[in-house]
Design a protein that fits this description.
With 408 residues, this protein is α/β, with parallel strands linked by helices. The protein is built from 14 helices and 18 strands.
């Protein structure tokens, strides 16, 4: 009999709705000669019957995922560089206008957002647990604390720098299983009138697009306005704004403040009402997502096998963290994809986790001139297709699987 899973947020019973089987860590790219060393765990997701928080059933220890060789760089995309410059300017225009304001970023990565803040001469602190990223940001002149964010870290920052007017996090809060530690840290560090702003993948977009590859080890939670509202209330906070974003395949930028300090915008109740109307966390909705996921897998595999049977060459584009889920769940290996090109130097010359497909620099894409390319970095598709316009102009075709399997 399967052991019951309890919610990490409220302790309620978690109902499992999709299981991707044994999976490797999404960013554990393998060096030649180490192909038998993949760490695996069961990748499955459930939803809490009490607070409606969607979450992983099992989790991978933080120290295995976030370390000095963590490969992801937020600044690798021109779209994301513009996105973070925009939110930094918005903070400066709306929130950081008092005397000597302070902004703290949880999971500051290579400093892509804080660069704009620092250039304006404003006080800032990045909190980044990955040694390599923290050092990189520091070399660029940023103030960074090389630790995980929690109550102790927050209290240290508050003692040294004072209260924060803004605490920001992008694609990081959903990675942290210890929400209690984070929220207690927010409480210790945020000023009485301050705001905690974070953006993460939106559960509704994942369900609507069947973007099942948004589910991997680093994403412990899959947020929605209703579950975030319940989470905030548990710690004396209130969800005061919720803005849908197009980046990363669909996210929401949530803003929470101390209860009663800021009036919630109409978008908060509008989003919660839509989630209720759609039955977002109802069992039937989530079971349908699981069925659609299996169907999408079968369709994609059929297309790839069909092309290979016709003697076509296929490569992958973008050795993303999310690609680990689609490659391993679909059983896609080097027999179907000759290689995957990626612009991240730390991934080049290695093999994808679990599926063991070689990762090469984008120049190899030009040299190989394949017939087809599987768009694994589909959330950056427009940027990539513009960059690689020669590919379709020369007769090549992209294979998409979000929002549906299609050839472009």
């Amino acid at each position: 009999m399967q052991e019951k899973t309890l919610c990490r947020v409220c302790g309620g019973l978690v109902r499992e709705f999709v299981d991707f089987g044994r999976q490797p860590m999404a960013d554990a790219f393998v060096e030649p000669g180490q192909l038998a060393d993949d760490f695996v765990y069961r990748l499955a997701v459930g939803v809490c019957a009490v607070c409606s928080m969607a979450q992983l059933i099992e989790e991978v220890p933080n120290e295995l995922m976030f370390h000095e060789e963590y490969p992801y760089r937020s600044s690798g995309s021109a779209v994301m560089r513009a996105h973070f410059a925009q939110i930094a300017r918005q903070f400066m225009d709306r929130e950081l206008r008092g005397p000597d304001p302070l902004i703290v970023e949880i999971g500051s990565n290579d400093g892509i957002m804080l660069n704009t803040i620092a250039s304006a001469g404003l006080r800032h602190v990045g909190v980044e647990p990955c040694d390599n990223l923290a050092r990189l940001a520091e070399r660029n002149g940023l103030s960074v604390v090389n630790r995980y964010f929690g109550q102790e870290t927050a209290e240290r920052i508050a003692a040294e720098h004072g209260s924060a007017d803004v605490i920001f996090s992008a694609n990081t809060f959903s990675h942290i299983s210890d929400v209690d530690g984070v929220m207690r840290g927010i409480d210790a560090l945020l000023s009485k009138t301050g705001v905690f702003v974070f953006e993460d993948p939106y559960l509704l977009d994942i369900v609507d697009q069947t973007s099942f590859d948004q589910i991997y080890d680093e994403h412990v939670y899959f947020f929605a306005a209703k579950s975030i509202s319940a989470l905030a209330a548990r710690y004396g906070f209130e969800l005061v704004d919720a803005e849908r974003l197009a980046v990363h395949g669909g996210e929401v930028r949530y803003s929470i403040a101390r209860a009663g300090v800021r009036p919630p915008t109409p978008s908060v109740q509008a989003l919660i009402a839509m989630e209720d109307l759609r039955g977002l966390t109802d069992e039937a909705t989530l079971r349908r997502f699981a069925v659609n996921t299996a169907r999408r897998r079968d369709e994609l595999v059929d297309v790839l096998h069909g092309l290979k049977a016709r003697g076509k060459t296929i490569v992958g584009y973008g050795a993303t963290a999310k690609s680990a889920t689609v490659l391993n769940y679909c059983g896609i290996g080097p027999g179907l994809l000759d290689f995957i090109c990626d612009s991240t130097p730390a991934k080049q010359g290695r093999y994808t986790p679990g599926s063991h497909i070689p990762v090469r620099a984008p120049e190899h894409f030009v040299e190989a001139r394949p017939d087809y390319a599987l768009m694994l970095a589909w959330n950056h598709a427009s940027e990539i297709m513009e960059k690689e316009s020669w590919f379709t102009e020369g007769g090549g075709r992209w294979i998409r699987y979000v929002p549906e399997v299609s050839l472009i």
